[in-house]
Backbone:
């Protein structure tokens, strides 16, 4: 099991910056993917960015490319989302997600895939 706790967010003017953190505890050694999703008012949850452990580069949805940056501190098991040049359409509740499962070195058993979600953090961009 992995537990995720988000922090950060808040309210900012258009063009401003905010950052979110996602601290993971539990079986963090099993995390294969870190991701940020967001849910806009009246819409379903959508992916924003993801980072595969051991992967080359993060993936970003087109609408945030060049403005958002993700990073992970593996020692602290914390995932970050830096959001710059924020726009009103970025207003949403942001959720951290991790994925565990599959095969792992040293483990004979294949683990069932599972998604783990944080509680969310609200980001509001308004003038």
Residues:
């Amino acid at each position: 099991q992995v537990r995720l706790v988000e922090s950060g967010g808040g309210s900012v003017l258009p063009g401003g910056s905010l950052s979110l953190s996602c601290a993971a505890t539990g079986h963090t050694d099993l995390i294969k993917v870190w991701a940020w999703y967001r849910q806009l008012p009246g819409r379903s949850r959508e992916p924003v960015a993801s980072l595969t452990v051991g992967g080359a580069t993060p993936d970003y949805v087109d609408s945030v490319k060049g403005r958002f940056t993700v990073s992970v501190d593996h020692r602290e098991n914390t995932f970050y989302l830096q959001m710059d040049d924020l726009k009103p359409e970025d207003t949403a509740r942001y959720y951290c997600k991790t994925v565990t499962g599959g095969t792992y070195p040293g483990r004979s058993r294949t683990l069932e895939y599972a998604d783990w979600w944080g509680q969310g953090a609200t980001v509001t961009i308004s003038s």
About this structure: The two ends are 40 Å apart (CA to CA). The mean pLDDT is 95. DSSP finds no helices and eleven strands in the chain. The CA atoms of residues 88 and 125 lie 5 Å apart.
